[in-house]
Structure formats: structure tokens, C-alpha cells
Amino acid sequence: QVQLVQSGAEVKKPGASVTVSCKTSGYTFTAYYIYWVRQAPGQGLEWMGWINPNSGGADYAQKFQGRVTMTRDTSISTAYMDLSSLRSDDTAVYYCARSTSSTGGDYWGQGTLVTVSS
Amino acid sequence: DIQMTQSPSSLSASVGDRVTITCRASQSIGRYLVWYQQRPGKAPDLLIYDASTLQSGVPSRFSGSGSGTEFALTISGLQPEDLATYYCQQTSRTPRTFGQGTRLEIK
After folding, report:
1. Of A45, A50, A109, which has the smallest distance from its Cβ to B98's Cβ?
2. From the centroid of its chain, how far is CA A31?
């Protein structure tokens, strides 16, 4: 069965960086995009960007340009999201999701809580 | 960026009711619209894609309609387990923007 399993919760200080991993199984990793979406406490969903695991090409929301990097390791079917220069308003649950170009996220990871606090 | 606006922001309905949530796009997106259900404390679940295609395993009481800039999600025969927040998302262009969500409460 398709599974996306994310790394565990993180606590970071302002200015630091965080890496969230998303290990996939049960399907051909290079056949689907990986979305990254975040959700601040009590707030809605926010699309951060996506990566094409086949090519490695990524597309980021303007808001995160310069601070986010999405990568993948095809040998272990895992995607990564790096977010730098963390601020308190980056405190959120970060999700990865599998997607085709038009169908949205059909399988999601369990979410990773990133807390930014001094 | 394409702005997605949902209405209402919240609603309360009884078991068995028919409920409709609307989503408006700031420009035409064809039928590139998906709907998600997010139960409290859980990741979103895909309900509908391409505006009206039901994702495998989703109960038939959920349906989607619309094209261009106006879309709707209808739940026919509300069930207690439908307590959730519902989001639309456009999949026409990047960034793949979401609506702000509609919180559905069961009376």
C-alpha cells in the first residue's frame, strides 16, 4: 500500500534551519510529484511547493523563495524539505503529499510539527 | 497568484441534511479543482478532483460541480463522521493555492 512517512517533530531556535523528510513506499517514487504543505496552529493549508522526483526540478511558492529547498533521493524513495532562517511564524505542521499534476494530493504523510521558539 | 475563496467559513447542520460549500477562483481554472476533508488532528484526505470526479473509496454522498470560477461541494445525507474542515484547491497553476477552509459542525 502507498505510504508516506515523515520524520519526527522538531524544535528550533529563530534563525536556524530545519529538514523534514518524507519516505515513500508502495508506488514508483519517480512517477508522482511530491507536494509540501504547511498548516500553522488553528489555520488553513498553505502550499509551499513541489518537486518532480524524476527530474529533481522544484517549484516554490513566491513566499518561500530563497528560504526553502526541496530535494529527493531516488535510491531510497525519499523527499526532503529544507526551510532556513526560521521565524516564530514558521511554527506549523508540515505535510508531504503525493500528487499528479492535476489531481491534488491523494496520499499524505502524517505531518511533522516544527516549533520555532527561543 | 490565483485566490480561492470559500463560503461559508463555518456551518452547522444536522445528520441527514444536504450541505453545500462553495469555492470561487479569482480567475478561470477550467475544471482544475480539488476538494479535501480534514478531520481534527489528521492530514487532509482527497475527496474530489477535476471538480467532480470522486476519489476512490469516498462515499457517494459527496459530489462536486462547477467549472471556470465557481465550484461547489455537496454532501447529501450528512453523517456524524463528516465533522471536519473542507478545503478547495486549484490545480491549474502554481502556486497551487487553497481556499481558507469551511468548518462543518454537526448539530
Report:
1. A45
2. 17
